[in-house]
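re the bet — no i am not wrong, look at it urself. input seq straight from the record:
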Amino acid sequence: MAHTIPTPHTPLVRNFFFWSGVVATVLYRAIIIMNHVSAFWAEIFWYVGTAGFILYFAHRYQIAKRRGRLLTESRLLEKVKASNIAPEDQAAFEYVLGTLQTSKERLMNIIIFVTSAVGLIVGAYLDFFR
């Protein structure tokens, strides 16, 4: 069965999403401090952090989906089980490939993405349109 191997993102794109997640995480932690310093900056941190989470978790969902599809289409787990590699190497491959297929990572990523997007929309409505 023919399958398409996804092309990895460039280092620039990977770094963009990585730093989006890092900045979002730092800003969310800093909101606690900003609440005591400036309500304006606390709100800015929240908006930028939430936008960063939307970017990061949408990207993570896409990556997890591509990996899952590739594992299924290429039947890598079945091929490893049928291979003649050393038993400890086979067990390691089976663990990594099997947990990639059964992980709840995609579900978690979509939940965080959706709740962040809903929060951003509701927050913007309450702050700017109400």
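see?? Helices lie at 11-37, 39-74, 76-81, 87-102, 105-129. told u. also The chain is about 85% helix and 0% strand. so pay up
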